[in-house]
Amino acid sequence: MSADGDVKALRRKGRIVVVGASLAGLRAAETLRDQGFTGSLTLVGDEPYEPYDRPPLSKQVLLGLECAEDTALPRTRDIDAEWRLGVAAAGLDRAAKDVRLVNGDTLPYDRLLITTGTKARPWFHPEEAALDGVFVLRTRDDSARLFRKLAAGPRRVLVIGAGFTGSEIASVCRERDVEVTVAERAPAPLVGALGEVVATVAARLQRDHGVDLRCGVSVTALEGDPAGRLRRAHLSDGSAIDVDVAVVCLGALRNTEWLAGSGLAAGPRGVACDAGCRVFDANGIVTDDIYAAGDVARCPHPLFGYQFLSLEHWGNAVEQARIAAHNMLCASTDRRPHLWVPMFWSVQFGVNIKSVGVPTLGDQLVVAQGALDEARFVAVYGYRGRVIAAASFDAGKWLGFYQQQIEAGAPFPPDYALVDRRTDTLQPVDPAFPDPHLPTHEPTVTVTGHSPTERRVQFVAPHA
Amino acid sequence: MRLVVDLNRCQGFAQCAFLAPDVFALHGGEALLFTSRFDEALRDQVEQAAAACPVQAILVDFSDEPTKGAEGRVG
Amino acid sequence: MSLATMSAQITDFANRADPYPLYAALRESPVTRQDDGSYLVSTYYEVRSLANDPRLSNDLRNRPPGAGGPAVAEEDPNQPPSFIFHDPPEHERLRDTAMRQFGPPHSPRFLHDMREDLAKIITDLLDPLEGKTEVDVVDDFAYPLPVTAICKILGVPREDEPLFHGWADTVASGLDPSQGKEKPRQARVELGAYLSDLIDSRRRHPGNGILGPLARETGPGGSMSKAELVATSMLLLIAGHETTVNLISNTTLTLMRHPDILKRFQSEPGLVVPLIEEVLRYEPPVQFVPFTIALSDIDIAGTTIPKGSQVWLLLASANRDPKRFADPDRFDPDREDNQHLGFYTGIHYCFGAPLARMEAQLALPQLFRRIENPRLLADPPPYRVNPVLRGPRHLPLAIDGLVA
What we know:
The complex is a heterotrimer.
Chain A: H1 3-13, E1 15-19, H2 23-34, E2 40-45, H3 60-63, E3 82-85, E4 89-93, E5 98-101, E6 106-108, E7 111-114, E8 118-120, H4 126-129, E9 134-136, H5 140-151, E10 156-160, H6 164-175, E11 179-184, H7 191-194, H8 196-208, E12 212-215, E13 219-224, E14 230-235, E15 240-242, E16 245-248, E17 252-254, E18 266-267, E19 270-272, E20 278-280, E21 286-292, E22 297-301, E23 307-309, H9 314-329, E24 343-348, E25 351-357, E26 364-371, E27 376-383, E28 386-393, H10 399-407, E29 445-448, E30 456-459
Parallel strand pairs in A: 1-2, 1-7, 2-3, 7-21, 9-16, 10-11, 10-16, 11-12, 19-22
Antiparallel strand pairs in A: 4-5, 5-6, 8-17, 13-14, 14-15, 18-19, 20-21, 22-23, 24-25, 25-28, 26-27, 27-28, 29-30
Helix pairs in contact in A: 2-9
Chain B: E1 2-5, H1 15-19, E2 24-27, E3 31-34, H2 43-52, E4 58-61
Chain C: H1 6-11, H2 20-26, E1 31-33, E2 39-41, H3 44-51, E3 56-57, H4 90-102, H5 115-126, E4 134-136, H6 137-142, H7 144-154, H8 161-173, H9 182-204, H10 211-217, H11 226-242, H12 244-257, H13 259-267, H14 272-282, E5 289-294, E6 298-300, E7 303-305, E8 310-313, H15 315-318, H16 353-370, E9 371-372, E10 375-376, E11 396-398, E12 401-402
Parallel strand pairs in C: 2-8
Antiparallel strand pairs in C: 1-2, 3-5, 4-11, 5-8, 6-7, 9-12, 10-11
Helix pairs in contact in C: 5-7, 5-16, 7-11, 8-9, 8-11, 9-10, 9-11, 12-14, 12-16
């Protein structure tokens, strides 16, 4: 039977298992049904909840504007699925083509989609992590617990790590009039994502809003009282702070342990897959029946030197899930590449921060519009003479333009006049990332087409 | 009934916050906050907000059914 | 059709009732250069892209000497242009100041709380049609509603309307690139003097409406000058006079031309929400934006628009682009993913859009609930002269009567 003949049978009566009842898993399931899949569809989730939206968990929920339980995602359609919630996947047998669950059940599949996402990196010291008052924030339950604690009026909150989640929590604390200290190992908040030039603005926002921001320090120990309640934190500069709440915001770990021994290219950095979301095995050979999407997936992006990007972005989860679902069900010639340009947003201290492209690749930066000291600007990042990313503070309406510049491989620095360009920031500067690891292989490519069916990559002559 | 806003698409035009101030609010000049769950009394507001979004970033699900098969299998 | 005369044909009154075949011809190439050096952009993705392009300026001081375009008093320091003719950061300063009184984040319920007032205005306009067998939807309804509403919102005395009605029309005619500039300029001076006096009195006695609090913004430490407030209030007053009237009358006309949809609408008033969005796509009240200027060379759709060129963004044409909207000449309120450009896009997105939507969504179900057996008496109806703010001058309907 030809591969494409298999596809017809698969669409009619195949068995598809989605591991990860998440945003990506849900949108993939909806796409499968949209595209006419009539076989059996099973969604597996380790939490006992149907798919919910995570961004509100560090914003609206902590502010008390809505309950953590009310964040279930809207459906775009009925998916007629078998749900296995509250029971995690424990293993994968590729030869038998089945997924084993922690309760011993096995789920046979013809196609498997991995959308297991990430979990919060826990505090490194297990006993300290178990103290009453020490939190992480990733799940609905985490958010509900932290909300209750904040509502009870803690004396001081310590946020460990000033990435996006940590900065958003610090912002919520100040809005709730809760004293907060932020400890960040780097010289400024968000420095890993946006570089120090932009991060300096984020630091000023924090301090202007009354955050006790301490940079260049790490938390060395959390100390409890005899009852096991957090009461003090010790910092690497020798100081100590009395706190009753600590929120550990040290990034995420990919949920790939369950794939150990499966022979897939899965590890702490995620599940490697091709641009069509097909997962690689450990030999770097692409599988044809296993796909990955969302935070757990790493796939090469042509616009960014074909580097394997792993994106913890809401929009990426949606888009990659749709591509994966489409490619699972179609003939090989109809497969689409996942060409989503990375994009994210954050809200902190009343400022809307958005980014498009991959700022961390940037070797130069210009403030193209607005001014850093007004906290309203667009910073554009260049990489070897082309526009690679842009970040905006309260200027998000312009980002579509810069996305087009990125997709077109436009020259950097921008040499054109534009509105709201200030004369004091015309020269490109080093964006000052802490640890640049620049790739060496970079054909210039552009993305063409408006709709998913049209989007393709085109090689172009490098810019002079 | 529930909704979600694709905040990548959202550019802070704030049409939803004008038309449905009980569900959507601006946080500062540009950032949008919304409540995911809403009840029948707010249905008209939400419909108007979703239709008015210049970038069609609001996804609304007027059904409110619990996930079939979800609860029974927990554990 | 000769390309050199395309903009002349668009502004030609003979094409006012149906400009869409012209737009279809223009869309054969997304960007069209005219002999006077201006560029017409007619396709959806290109219009949307340019409306969001920071290399395009709305500040008329950037236009080349001798260029056409709207008549605004950019040379007169006593008459600064309104925020639509500014770029950031001045645009944000002025627009945000006005927004503080009008909408979120500072006044999130201001418009929402006006719904009942608007509903009463609508009832008060429809009640007098009792006993009539013919109505002019424009004069009897679509014009007085937004005028009454904008007066209330600004805090401008409704009884002064006969005074400023003519000025408003004449200032708006300045947007028409084919018209002379002297009359609009004179009308600006007179309307400006009227508003200036009003602002002085509102500073002492704020009264209702947003002019009172805005007048206080012009004092020491405020965020705009008095001349800037005159310009802002003139913009809002004129926009309130000249645009929503078209949305309401274009919707009425379109419904009369689609009896099947009208019938459905009469039994399903909630249809008004997608219906208004489809009218904004299909017959947008603002047809095009003829005054943007390229600050540098812009490569788009295989054409380079040179620095200094005037660029027309044809919103109404983009809204009928078959590459973006399936079957674009079909009026379809059930259309999904209707990301029309009827209120423009980007930082200059229509300031009054939520008010226009609210008025239309309240007005049209009431109008069609109450008038019995409406019949269109002229098709096409007579149009206003203005090609930018396009809509019927009169819209006479025969009716059998009025339901209570």
